[in-house]
Amino acid sequence: MHGLFNLLSASKEVSGPNTFTENETIAKYEIMDGAPVRGESIPIRVFLAGYDLTPTMRDINKKFSVKYFLNLVLMDEEDRRYFKQQEITLWRKGEKAHKGAGGHTPSPHVPSHLVSAEGGPQGSESMIRDPPPDSAPKAPVEDMTREDGTSPKEE
After folding, report:
1. Which architecture, in CATH terms, is 2-88?
2. Are the CB atoms for 104 and 84 separated by under 8 Å?
3. For 38-84, what is each residue's pLDDT tens digit?
4. Which of 38, 106, 113, 141 has the CA that lies 20 to 30 A from 29?
5. How far is 133 from 118, CA to CA, in rounded Å?
6. Residue ranges under compositional bias (Basic and acidic residues) (predicted)?
């Protein structure tokens, strides 16, 4: 048995009466070579930073769309192919708020009329929370419980 995993892009552009469609294979991975064990799961991690991708866009002004798909192909010993395709949604991760001497740094993606005097989005709170002054940091093991119900601090 042999397994392949592909990342596909499908874009569509409408110009008057014409529709242009482009399908592209962005990445191919071999995920399995050999007979699988029943119930076996194969974790897959795909790092997307190395690819020139845009966020998923659906029917922008009924003229343009970009969709992404994961495609799984399994081939058995007799070269029979089994397919499964799943649409995925990609989006851009928002910028993290950093607390510095000047407060927030405005994002270039936020329109200026939505930015407060401090530089962050209007009506937003700081994403960084300071702990209350009277709380001491706990050791990571203090709040944990073992499978047998005992606590590491009981030893």
Report:
1. Sandwich (2.60)
2. no
3. 888 888 888 888 888 999 999 899 899 999 999 998 888 888 899 99
4. 38
5. 25
6. 140-155
Beta-carbon neighbour count of residue 148 at 10 Å?
5
DSSP the chain: -EEEEEEEEEEEEEETTEEEEEEEEEEEEEEEESPPPTT---------TTS-----EEEETTTEEEEEEEEEEEE-TT--EEEEEEEE---PPPPPP--BTTBPPPPTTS-GGGB-TTSSBTTPPPS--PPPTTPPPPPTTTT---TTS--GGG-
Strand 2-15 and strand 18-33: the pairing is: antiparallel
In angstroms, what is the C-alpha Rg of the chain?
Answer: 25
Residue 84 forms beta bridges with which residues? Answer: 72
Mean pLDDT of 16-35: 90
Query: Tell me, what amino acid is at 101?
Result: A
Average model confidence (pLDDT) across the chain: 73
Tens-digit pLDDT profile for residues 97-117: 554 444 445 555 555 555 545
**Assigned token pair, 100:** 């510095």
